[in-house]
Design brief:
By secondary structure, the chain is mostly helical. It folds into two domains: about 45 residues; about 50 residues. About 85% of the residues lie in helices and about 0% in strands. Helix 2 runs antiparallel to helix 3. The N and C termini lie far apart (about 85 Å). Keywords: Coiled coil, Membrane, Transmembrane, Transmembrane helix.
Length: about 110
Amino acid sequence: MSKERARRRAERERVAALKAAARAAEQERAERRAARRRAVTSRLPAFGRGRQTGILARRRRTQTTFLVCLLLALNVLVWVVWDDWAMRLAGFVVSVLAAPVIHTLAFRR
């Protein structure tokens, strides 16, 4: 009986040792993977949070897109109408300076 118990205990210990070795190997692989990831991501630029979601963020993106399209259309119109580079540059500068005012007037809350 004692020999049988010793044999079963030895078998359990062997299985436990195999499982422990497998866990240790997996943990070592995970640590190496994490170290590689940290090494790569430390060299990359840090970006802010992801894209904002929700109704207000979508509304703001829509308003900004509309304003940019409007100003782009006006700049194309200035580009087509006037051949003078000074007028084209002036139209661009005026559109950049007027963008916040147009945004405030068009999308007042």
